[in-house]
Specification:
62% of the residues lie in helices and 0% in strands. It is built from eleven helices and no strands. The chain is elongated and about 60 Å long.
Length: 227
């Protein structure tokens, strides 16, 4: 389109909040210390996902109502690249009554990666209720709202994430992206400028500022955060 500058904002890797059983959250704190079976969870913790799948299946053959085993099996399927099986096991864990914030976080991520934004929002909301002090829940809820075009809600959740993890550059970059999508270019520029000062090694902020500066017609910027 003549006279229109297209800018593709760099959003960094947005789905960095994937956490699971016997792993660590983005802040380095244990997410889940519950064990459904020592051998099965050892395989999961040591990243032997095929063994983890086999052993968790054995657990569930003996105890099909073991919600935690369904969750752990789902996470193993995720890491083995089997998204349909992952989603099925997460849903079964939830149906059986498992109330862990990270289960619903991972369920939301599974939905989001399949393009089901509405279901991802519902799951991330549950994660935020169960783990209100975890920035990852708010970050991903904000991301889902942004994809749904609910920018005011996205901005609120991204700000909550930053309040809990003020040093997280991805959340600050995404908040600036949302400002830009709302055509509030002044606040977007301020956010990226401060982020670049705080984290000069963080390439997305520098790239987005450069793109913004190159635009002759900022009111015509077409924004698209990379996925």
């Amino acid at each position: 389109m003549t006279g229109t500058t297209t800018i593709r904002l760099v959003a960094a890797i947005l789905l960095t909040a994937i956490v699971g059983p016997l792993t660590a959250s983005a802040g380095g704190n244990p997410v889940s210390q519950q064990i459904c079976n020592t051998a099965a969870d050892y395989a999961l913790g040591s990243e032997d996902y095929q063994q983890a799948i086999r052993l968790h299946r054995q657990v569930l053959e003996a105890d099909p109502a073991n919600a935690l085993a369904h969750y752990h099996l789902g996470f193993a399927y995720r890491m083995a690249g089997r998204p349909s099986d992952e989603l099925r096991e997460y849903l079964e864990a939830a149906r059986l009554g498992l109330k862990q914030w990270d289960l619903f976080l991972n369920l939301g991520l599974a939905y989001l990666e399949q393009g089901d934004v509405a279901q991802s929002i519902d799951s991330f909301k549950q994660a935020a209720v169960l783990g209100p002090g975890h920035s990852e829940a708010h970050f991903n809820l904000g991301l889902a709202y942004e994809r749904a075009g609910k920018l005011a809600d996205a901005l609120d959740e991204m700000s909550r994430s930053i309040a809990l993890a003020p040093r997280d550059p991805d959340a600050r970059n995404m908040r600036a992206t949302i400002f830009a999508e709302m055509r509030d270019y002044g606040r977007a520029r301020k956010e990226w400028t401060q982020l670049e000062r705080d984290r000069p090694d963080y390439a997305p902020a520098r790239a987005n500022l450069a793109l913004l500066d190159k635009s002759c017609h900022p009111q015509d910027i077409l924004l698209q955060a990379s996925r």
